[in-house]
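Subgroup meeting minutes
Present: P.N., E.W., G.H.
Scribe: E.W.

1. P.N. recapped why we're keeping a running log of single-chain structure predictions: easier to compare across weeks, and new members can see raw inputs and outputs side by side.
2. G.H. added today's entry (601 aa).
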Amino acid sequence: MATLNPTIAEVTERIRARSRETRADYLARMDEARGAGPARQTLSCGNLAHGFAAAPLGDKLRLRGAEAVNVGVVTAYNDMLSAHQPFETYPAAIKAAVREVGCTAQVAGGVPAMCDGVTQGRPGMELSLFSRDVIAAATAIALTHNMFDAALCLGVCDKIVPGLTIGALSFGHYPTVFVPAGPMTSGLPNKEKARVRALFAEGKVGREELLEAEAESYHAAGTCTFYGTANSNQMMMEVMGLHLPGAAFVNPDTPLREALTRAAAQRACALAQAGEAPMSRVVDEKAIVNAVVGLMATGGSTNHAIHLPAMARAAGVLIDWQDFEDLSKVTPLLARIYPNGSADVNRFHAAGGMAFLIRELLDAGLLHEDKATVAGGSLRAYAKEPYLLDGALAWREAPAASLDEDILRPVSNPFDPEGGLRLLTGDLGRSVIKVSAVAPANRAVEAPALVFHSQEDFLAAFKRGELERDFVAVVRFQGPKANGMPELHSLTPSLGVLQDRGFKVALVTDGRMSGASGKVPAAIHLSPEAVDGGPIARLRDGDRIRLDGDAGVLEALVDPAEFAARTPAVFRQPQHGLGRELFAPFRAIAGAAEAGGSIFF
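Output recorded in log:
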């Protein structure tokens, strides 16, 4: 086992000390629940009969007793979204697999799964972040019947995996295995898709050409192949030890994917039978640090600067953006996956993928190896890749060398000696910036502010030709309390066009950008948000702003006394239509972005 990097050790200990009381309280609650024994034994005869009334006879006989493990399946299946459509067939496959080892499985419940790719730039996007907490609550409802001894969580995309994690951690006395569906096969290259988007933003191609490019890119069942939040989720589940090794990026509807799904189901049974690896012990300080390191090493989604604090808090672990910053400084960037490069996740997987990445990070002392995982043993098991040997699932060592160093590199030859995320601080508050896709020459911008209260206002100004200059776009009243913190990904093509024309441009917002944050410097998740009277609410058109991603600075170059004396702007977003009125209570109690933007913590 390699010696742990001193900074990794120091940050982990800092988190452990900060979390001592909340973590102890969480573990005490989970140990109390675990000590009560198999849940079905506590049910009355009427309760239990309701629980197995619809089960096949063989399952019913097992469920009447206390010996057989019953696995609760929580699924995000729907057939509109490509990433979750493959889950349609999983329940039958899981039930068949567990019966082979004398167990049973029941679909405990479904959770909603909305797609930011469908709602991007639309009013429905204002429900996106809050859908995570709805999913967490729905997961708890599914598992609360006390019929189960273990859980399988079927989910892939942006808010779904964080929501499932938060909900399942409420039942952390169960062993829980996350079961992915895998990415769709490669379609139109992401770089070509981005080129067509930029042409459309400039009015040089029409909607039909744009739609054709998008349809060629998003063309089949499976996760979108760029490295956004969905695929960052899958990477994290592996480095946290919640997947079977190598499960993240195997394509749907292949023999290997089917074998991994069956094995995950049987593994959940084995863990429950042995009383091993309850989720409360798998998700600890070390797992959270590993997740952050994985994000930094791969240039992962900025959305996890919000999701990981909420996920960690559900396990009693307290993290902040300073932890992200410090871990980023010692984590080399080992992967270039679109939008941080031209390759998609299928090419990353083919180049060596997660097994190669984890082995490199372990050997460099950048991941905690000595931690519980659902695979058993230590995280070293995840430095192997799955394959079929005479039709049976097996694991082998990762390639000794990357098969394509334009995509995946060893620690000895990284793309960058530091990770892809920075903390920005200054008189405007605290925010984060993803720099892994931003050219060094574009990471620092000092220019006048142009203030907008919606992305629609910005796009209208772009179409009118009013933005042909150096500027910092300030898009405010986009935080959790203001309107649910929608992603502002629709700004990316226009900002990219202006940068390509030679203008120095940047974005400052109390909203989110995207898991696909790209080449334009963007200070996002700015806290405190405008609706809480944060400094961003006092900015005016023409104020000079300095954003420096390398120096970690975000500040308004305005006389401090004058700035402090300004009355903060007030703006009320429309909060009705497409179900938005139902989420008024969520907006009222949402926490700050750095704490996870959650209604729970």
